[in-house]
Amino acid sequence: MQSTNPTFKSFKAFYPYYLKEHSNVTCRRLHFIGSTLVLAVIAIALLKQHYSLLWLLPVIGYGFAWVGHFFFEKNRPATFKHPFYSLWGDWVMFKDMLVGKIKF
Description:
Layout: H1 11-20, H2 25-48, H3 57-73, H4 83-98
Helix pairs in contact: 1-4, 2-3
């Protein structure tokens, strides 16, 4: 596992680092699955008014991502050192995968 902890002054500076930390296609796919399930659970919780389902969001989102990092990417998730930029990066990467900018 990597031990470096660079600092960033903007998300624009952080995102290339974030993408490098997600170079493994299986890791990216697991992030995509987790993010898709997070959106599905939000929709179901709101439509069915089962708001207790929202407690599942961190488990689903981080669960898939962390499996990708620990078993495929072999690095520590950026969330541990850069939580806000990392969450933002998750959704930007999700969008970039949806539009075909990033292979998954």
